[in-house]
Specification:
GO terms for molecular function: transmembrane transporter activity. Keywords: Membrane, Transmembrane, Transmembrane helix, Transport. It is found in: Membrane. One of its GO terms (cellular component) is membrane. By secondary structure, the chain is an all-alpha fold. It has three domains: 205 residues, MFS general substrate transporter like domains (Growth Hormone, Chain: A); 61 residues; 224 residues, MFS general substrate transporter like domains (Growth Hormone, Chain: A). The longest helix has 35 residues. It is globular and about 65 Å long.
């Protein structure tokens, strides 16, 4: 009966159940963030190996990663609402079961299309786990120290998954087989499933005589379809734009269609909320809270910058400096170590320091990290003089900003919308990553084309050969770093304007 007595919501002012079980719960749901970034990063490292094994050309290998990211980003909102309606525990467990099965099956698929489809199905399962995990933490722990620890630990899961994913994919791909990357990933997801079954509390029974309104138990399938289609089209167009060229007629056409669908979704949600008794997928009235809207803008800007920073730092080490996968992986180790340490410190700061101070610190850190790669520092400069501090600064920003924003969202939304809030903040971050990468790639390509004296369409083609220590490549990567610096600076500006004087996010209500 312990699980049911704890229920969703916990005990005000204390732990919802035993300390050991609370720790096990936090570790289990943190597994969602950890597995998500592990699945992406470990695949990035072995892309060339998979390409050779399945005879996938270089130009299409990016879909091994993009297929996963596409379904993950597009189904977050729908899964978040389903979790709030049918139970967060149920959706989390079945999502992890789905990830387990698809991960085990993926290496057995012998062709490119089937492989990409299975990768997309993997992302579908992850999209069920991530917002549900945030929702579980939001409703299980009462505001206070325990909740701060929980959200800070969850925030550490993503950078830890990224760094372990690099090492994990590199070592297994080099010394065993690329297939084991997916099989071990499936084993970890299975462990998450079993742990979730035992430690995630069942929903508390409603009090005797309580009547749940039918509106709260409905899912807006029309809205879910519209927004999912809109996001699929948008992220697909952004992913393919840099591959086929932005002047390709169907790319801007698809972006226009996606924006119209997203607008239609907003109008439909407003209609349901104001003109009917049916529950919308997302209450548009929540955006009347200016700080809530600003929080989503900050999330988008920050993760546009942070994601670009990680990707182009990888290009700097591998493509420009000509380092091996293992050598590059070693240079990213500070991000994982720093992530764990900063998460522990942040859990203590959330109830002691004002939210605007923490958010300002986070956005300034990613701006400074990008600046260290943007400045014309001599290429002979030691890694320890610029890249090492940049790695630390970037993760200091991510692991202070993310728990602060997720806690703010948890406090801003009612009990029944906690998983949807987690879905929204992650979806915004995912869209920011896609838009930021599309702009960064266009910036890099334009700078390299100017330096080479060729057309933009020729960069990356057979006629333009790019070798390590190429000046055009150096300037192109530094150009993207200036973009990332600007994104971080704008995010800082949004914090200073809309969060000025904000209280302690981690305090009790």
């Amino acid at each position: 009966m312990a699980a049911r007595e704890g229920g969703e919501g916990g005990i005000a002012g204390g732990l919802p159940f035993s300390k050991a079980r609370c720790i096990a719960l936090v570790v289990t749901v943190t597994g969602a963030a950890f597995l998500n970034t592990l699945g992406v990063q470990s695949s990035v490292i072995i892309l060339p190996t998979i390409g050779r094994a399945l005879d996938i050309p270089d130009s299409r290998q990016q879909w091994i990663v993009s297929a996963y990211n596409l379904t993950f980003g597009c189904f977050l909102l729908l899964w978040g609402r389903l979790a709030d309606v049918y139970g967060k525990r149920l959706i989390f467990i079945w999502g992890s079961v789905w990830v387990t099965l698809t991960s085990i099956i993926v290496p057995f698929v012998p062709n490119e299309i089937g492989f990409d489809v299975l990768r997309g199905l993997q992302g579908l399962g992850a999209a069920a786990m991530v917002p549900t995990a945030i929702g579980i933490l939001g409703v299980t722990f009462s505001p206070g120290k325990a909740k701060n620890y929980a959200f800070s630990s969850y925030a550490a899961g993503a950078p830890l998954g990224a760094i372990i994913g690099n090492i994990f994919g590199g070592l297994l791909g080099e010394y065993l087989s690329w297939k084991w990357v997916f099989w071990i990933f499936g084993i970890l997801a299975a462990a998450c499933t079993v742990a979730g079954y035992y430690v995630i509390p069942r929903p508390a029974l409603p009090p005797p005589g309580a009547i749940e309104t039918s509106a709260k138990k409905t899912v807006d399938w029309i809205g879910g379809t519209i927004i999912t289609l809109g996001l699929v089209i948008l992220l697909f167009a952004l992913s393919e734009g840099n591959v086929v060229g932005w002047r390709t007629p169907w790319v801007p056409s698809l972006i226009a269609v996606s924006l119209l669908l997203i607008l239609a979704f907003g109008l439909w949600q407003h209609h349901l909320e104001t003109r009917t008794a049916r529950a919308p997928l997302m209450k548009m009235s929540i955006f009347k809270n200016v700080q809530f809207s600003a929080a989503n803008v900050i999330m988008m800007l920050f993760f546009s910058s942070f994601n670009n920073y990680l990707i182009y730092a990888t290009y700097w080490f591998q493509d420009y400096q000509g380092l091996s996968v293992i050598q590059t992986t070693i240079r990213f180790i500070p991000t994982g170590v720093t992530g764990v340490m900063v998460a522990a410190v942040t859990s203590q700061l959330l109830s002691r320091i004002r939210g605007d101070f923490i958010l300002t610190f986070g956005t300034v850190m990613i701006a400074l990290a990008s600046l260290l790669f943007a400045l014309p520092i001599p290429t002979s400069t030691s890694y320890w003089a610029y890249a090492f501090p940049a790695m630390i600064l970037a993760v200091c920003g991510a692991d202070t900003l993310f728990p602060t924003l997720t806690l703010f969202v948890a406090k801003s939304l009612p009990y029944e919308d906690q998983a949807l809030g987690g879905a929204l903040i992650n979806a915004v971050g995912q869209i920011g990553r896609a838009i930021g990468l599309a702009i960064a790639t266009a910036v890099q390509t334009a700078i390299m084309a100017r330096k080479k004296g060729v057309g933009v369409d020729e960069i990356g083609g057979e006629g333009v050969e790019i070798q390590p220590w190429d000046d055009a490549l150096k300037e192109g990567i530094r150009g993207t770093a200036w973009l990332d610096f600007a994104l971080g600076a704008v995010a800082t500006g949004v914090v200073l304007v809309f969060f000025r004087g904000a209280g302690k996010v981690g305090g009790k209500h």
